[in-house]
């Protein structure tokens, strides 16, 4: 055997080993991809179940929010009514205060006039008794 033939045999063995390693690599890669595909299918089914549950939960929450909305509207209306009542009470209080000070002056004037009239009446009565 010549040197060229030996080199050709070595090259053939090297190519054969390379093809065997590539074949083993491809077999293992195929097995790994099969496992990954199964895992992705399981995850996809789980995600579909979760999405279905989320959809049901969201529908339930939307129904409950629709039930609660009128209560919040009533509370807002009550707050507005209480605010209006407070404003009316403040207005009435200011009117009563103004009226009270005006009435106090009127009452004091009436009492003074009544006392003066009573004193004048007593004087006139005494004067009439002395004149008789």
Strand content: under 5%
Outline type: rod-shaped
**Average residue pLDDT:** 86
Total strand segments: 0
**How does the helix and strand content classify structurally?**
mainly alpha
Helical proportion, percent range:
over 70%
Summarize the helix and strand pattern as letters: H
Would you identify the regions where 5 or more consecutive residues have pLDDT less than 50? none
Q: What's the N-to-C terminus distance?
A: 184 Å
SS element count, helices? 1
Assembly form of the protein: single chain
Number of domains: 1
Largest sheet features: none
- Radius of gyration over all CA atoms, rounded: 54 Å
Question: Could you describe the 3D structure shown?
Answer:
Keywords: Membrane, Transmembrane, Transmembrane helix. InterPro entries: UPF0478. By secondary structure, the protein is mainly α. It has one domain. The protein is 98% helix and 0% strand. The chain is built from one helix and no strands. It is rod-shaped and about 180 Å long. The model has no long low-confidence stretch (mean pLDDT 86).
């Amino acid at each position: 055997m010549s040197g060229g033939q030996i080199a050709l045999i070595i090259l053939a063995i090297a190519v054969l080993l390379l093809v065997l390693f590539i074949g083993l690599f491809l077999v293992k890669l195929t097995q790994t991809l099969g496992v990954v595909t199964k895992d992705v299918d399981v995850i996809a089914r789980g995600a579909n179940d979760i999405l279905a549950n989320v959809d049901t939960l969201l529908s339930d929450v939307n129904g409950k929010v629709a039930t609660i909305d009128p209560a919040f509207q009533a509370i807002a209306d009550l707050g507005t009514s209480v605010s209006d009542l407070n404003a009316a009470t403040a207005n009435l209080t200011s009117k009563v205060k103004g009226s009270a000070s005006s009435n106090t002056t009127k009452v004091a004037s009436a009492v003074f006039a009544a006392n003066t009239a009573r004193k004048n009446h007593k004087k006139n009565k005494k004067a009439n008794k002395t004149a008789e």
